[in-house]
Amino acid sequence: MAASLLHPELRDPTRRPPTWWAEDSPPPPPAPPLDGATNCRVAVIGAGYTGLSAALELARAGVEVVVLEAAWPGWGASGRNSGMCCLGGSFRSLDALARRHGAEETRRFVRVQQEAIALVGELAETHGFDLARQGAGELAVAHRPAALAGLRDHQEALARFGGPPTALWSAEELAERHHASPDSHGALFMAGSFGLNPLRLAVGLAIAARAAGARLHGGSPVVSWRREAGRHILTTPEGELRADQVVVATNAFTPDDLGPAGRRPPFRGAYLPVLTQVIVSRPLSPTEQAAHRFVGTEPISDTRRLLTDVRLLPPDAAGGRRLLIAGPGGTRGSEADMAHWRDRMARRLALKFPAWAGIGISHAWRGPWCITSRLSPTVGCLPDDSSIWFAIGFQGVGVSLGTWSGRAVARVLSGRAAGPMAEIPAVMAAMPRPFPLAALRGWGQRMAHGLLRARDGFV
């Protein structure tokens, strides 16, 4: 099973992503390839946040669970993102969601976003792993003065739908409390979010799941899937797993042809992987940090259509802090294409922080996140087969919502939830549906990417 919009180099499980996170994280636990035939009650496909969170919850409930991963735990997007545990999950406004799903379901969705952020911190505390946590909130920064009106509207919507405490900062307040930049014209502060080393979360979940009794198998991509006598038979290069139920937790790496033989693949054409380019600088000295009065620790996203994430990472022993900046990473995903997008991100860095233009870049990588045609996450089971569950499409906030969704699915399968969909808000409780003209969605993505870049001024 390999049909995917991602470039083969990006999904090659033998390639080790050159991230800063890998240098600042413990190694993942042993996860040998599946060898021979074995059985379990629940098979989980994918060892990112969603799959590992599901496996941990299932194992703690006494359910026999096996995780199959093409590479190793945390290899995919879980180890390649910008490390922001934050609000979000839909590209529709809260008012638009309320018109579609009702005000109460929209409040539930906002409440779940906050629960998901809290859950990440609780899991780290319960199982004793260090996230390198930073900040007590997040900032949405206006990249032009006119964008402040949209931030004010969002602040009011969060208040109506039960969001966290917020504050609207002027450019002067932002410069005093967090950082100064000619590209920052004020900000909306939203409490509760935080930055982290995202790979530490994946590794911590993997260690905890394994300790609870889950079996983890890396180097074990699913190459075929069939039904036999009411059970699922998942074949890997070296083994075969028979399971009563399956959880699909592959997000942006979901192959278009993933699913049991003999039926239309249920996820075909229903998702779109989007690439983020991340660069990390050499450590900035305290004197260099002062050039932009960067004293804040909260993670930042700006208001561009192809937004920019910014973080000044935790200090080293000498007080140096590396700058992380992440933004659009193109649509191809090849190694040859990455140099182009690395240079573009360096130019965006210089635009936002001119005193740091030309600073040495120590790490550069790309990672995918996932959009669904509904522009919101999709969590549930197949309408005609309640033994196949999925949680896909977190619209760029998989750190929090992916972790929460994996646990939510596991609570259903272990019998701990009040009902099959009782804990999942209507905004998320949906079957993936194909994009219009799904076979052409890659071309459509390239056209949309170019248009949005033009509206952002090609920076």
UniProtKB/TrEMBL annotation:
GO molecular function (one): oxidoreductase activity
Annotated Gene3D superfamilies: D-Amino Acid Oxidase, subunit A, domain 2 (3.30.9.10), FAD/NAD(P)-binding domain (3.50.50.60)
Signal sequence, start to end: none
One Gene Ontology term, aspect cellular component: cytoplasm
Transmembrane segments: none
Record InterPro entries: FAD-dep_OxRdtase, FAD/NAD-bd_sf
Keywords: Oxidoreductase
Pfam families in the cross-refs: DAO
Domain FAD dependent oxidoreductase: 41-411
UniProt region (Disordered), positions on chain: 1-35
Name of protein: Glycine/D-amino acid oxidase
Species of provenance: Roseospirillum parvum
Phylogenetic classification of the source organism: Bacteria, Pseudomonadati, Pseudomonadota, Alphaproteobacteria, Rhodospirillales
